Amino acid sequence: MSITPERVAQIAKLARLELDDEKQRLFAGQFEDILKYMDTLNGLDTAGTEPLYSPVEQPTPLREDKAEKRFERDDIVSNAPETDGQFFIVPKIV
Amino acid sequence: MADFEVVIGLEVHAQLKTESKLFCSCSTRFGSEPNENVCEVCSGMPGALPTLNAKAVEFAAKMGLAMNCNVSLGSIFERKNYFYPDSPNGYQISQLDNAICQNGYIEIPVGESTKRVGITRIQLENDAGKSIHSQAENLSYVDFNRTGVPLIEIVSDPDMRSAEQAVSYLKTLHSILLYLDICDGNMEEGSFRCDANVSLRPRGQEEFGTRVELKNMNSFRNVQRGIEYEIARQEDLILDGEEVVQETRLYNAEKNITASMRGKEEAHDYRYFPDPDLIPIKLTEEQVAGWKSELPELPLEKRARFESEFGLPEYDANLLTQDRAIAEYFEAAVGCFNNPKKLSNFMMGQFMRELNERSIAVADVALAPEHFAELVRIVEEGMISTKIGNDVLPELMEKGGSAEAFVKEKGMVQISDSSELESVVDEVIAENPSEAEAYRGGKHKLQSFFVGQVMRKTRGKANPALVNELLQKKL
Ligand SMILES: [Zn+2]
Prior knowledge:
- The complex is a heterodimer of chains A (94) and B (475).
- Chain A has helices at residues 5-14, 21-42, 73-77; strands at residues 62-63, 88-91.
- In chain A, α1 (5-14) crosses α2.
- Chain A has three helices and two strands.
- Chain A has a domain at 1-44: Histone, subunit A, CATH 1.10.20.
- With 94 residues, chain A is mainly alpha-helical.
- Chain B is an alpha+beta fold and 475 residues long.
- Chain B has three domains: 4-290, no CATH class; 297-409, no CATH class; 418-474, Orthogonal Bundle (Arc Repressor Mutant, subunit A).
- Chain B is built from 15 helices and 17 strands.
- In chain B, β9 (130-134) and β10 form a beta hairpin.
- Chain B is elongated and about 90 Å long.
- Classes of the chains: A mainly alpha (94), B alpha+beta (475).
- Chains A and B meet through β1, α3 and β2 of A and β2, α1, β9, β10 and β17 of B.
- The complex binds zinc ion.
- Chain B: Keywords: ATP-binding, Ligase, Nucleotide-binding, Protein biosynthesis, Transferase.
- Chain B: It comes from Halodesulfovibrio spirochaetisodalis.
- Chain B: Its EC number is 6.3.5.-.
- Chain B: This is Aspartyl/glutamyl-tRNA(Asn/Gln) amidotransferase subunit B.
């Protein structure tokens, strides 16, 4: 697969990043290198090997279903870009 | 629709009835003040790590078992990436091919028989928050209380062939969720939501047509109407030689149309990948077997048993088993008075009418099943008439207590004493000489007129069989 600067621009847009032409070319090259490395791995014979989704082997830690209030609302909304003390306020989305 | 076959697959989102959210211990309570049930995890603070709710895993697995799915012993979570302010992480934690439950089926009632609908998978995922948009201020107000509430998304195979089948599937699913007691099933508040994929293909063609995803149908009726509208719209397009565009359309209940969400979908490229913050959910065969043994009798099984064990008609059995609480109430009543059909008549009639009228659930009924059974028994025994039985039921449902004591106290016990009734019958005949004459002249239809008069004088308490007998004797 060949990564073009246009493809980089598309991916950047999905990630809400703005990249100038120079950066798009730079990252296209870097993407290529990474994918080539993956291609090397693709050359290995993995038939009969279970897919590995996590290198951690212990079972999923599970939490008991108990509700707990750990923060006051003020603590939480103080992280908002803008707030009226109740809501996170953001530029209008629809 | 002779030339086309309709193909429908449904995606149902059901909110799980857990106390806390899927990946943090914030409360899932509905109706709290905005952003009261929020922490660093569900508001997407950098570095916050999710810990999985054990109950949500159990509920999802149980739903899978109830729908004949394979429960995966090693399912994984994926990130579905998109930007929207009510999803503060910038992604939703969801599942795809390696979901917790896969490859199941359920039987749904279709007309007189049943149809098998395949279940592709059931995935565990977290819900998004809610936002209010202010046109005037050009701002959106975001509330994260619902963000992170556990959902299961139940994805069906494209096995339904009409809007009726889709609704029947939905109702079956809804009833299973309530039987398992893992979702409150409230469609208006959004704890049970449905999206439908609808397409048409020429009859006999193997390949599917272009599908349209329908959203925003928040009642069974709207699902039916939305799908029907969409089928007609696609049929018109095809017959006019136009193309059906693959898109998402919103159902508008007020206008009863579907309208395109134009453009909003195009940018969607979710770039799923396994969530590195969560290791696979590992389950054991023993855990799954344990959950399976805890499953209650499910609606379809209960319905079959109500028919065979109680000799009820299919119609009754179906109606009585849609809601688990009603079914259990009914069964408890049968245990006290073994006349299932009479109990069923009262239950499906006045009892359910009262539930609907007052918008209450069986849990809100003060009348114990044994006292409901008592009421039906005293009607059967002739102590009160069916009409009086129906008349007193609402008050009994509200206040509870012994039915027999209630009717005795109110003086509603039927007059079955012939000497007492005889004098009333005599009175009525004396007061209506011309009708009596006509009756004797052959107008036997007037019998019901005389019965009515006697009932009026006794305020409905006369035993009808006895009245008829006396009238025939006296006239
Ligand atoms: Zn939280």
